[in-house]
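Morning run. Coffee first, then this:
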Amino acid sequence: MTWESFYLTCFLTGLLLTIASFVFGTHFHLPFHLPSVVHLHLHVPHAGHNDGTSPLNLTVLLMFVTWFGGAGYVMTHSRSAAVAVAFTAAVVLGFAGGGLMYLFMGRVLIANEHPLREQDFEMVGVLGHVSSTIRETGTGEMIYTQQGTRRSCGARSEDGHAIERGAEVIVMHYEKGIAYVQRFEELQGQA
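And here it is:
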């Protein structure tokens, strides 16, 4: 195997795996499995970043391999550079490509990502409006805002009385997708 074919193989492998990860997402299965004796476990620390991405993730590694292979192939194919110079340039350009991808991921793709917390979606105490009349001992619908998104859910009156459309309500408890609500002005009167 020559250096030129090595670089071309790196480039094509990186390019094809990048396309495959783009088409199938970052999680796809190959049609074969490794024997159960082989256990692959790779843990790379986050290097002090709190955004949840490591500089050594699959996308960055694929970018490195693609740029490394492409730069090395161009340098050796034109035969204008010695092997050491071509390899050094390929490594530098590979790190540049991987670094650019890491910056793109950190600044554009996951800049506004944050972990979901259960308390962010707690229904008890949520203020909303009845959008479909709640009949006596019946079920209606309420509209509310949570996490900056307008949402709706089934609603029943806490005390079993009817609540007309447009009334402002507070969720007292939430069970099996149904919010048990009470009028806001009733709660204000009690306080």
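The CA atoms of residues 67 and 134 lie 62 Å apart. Good start to the day.
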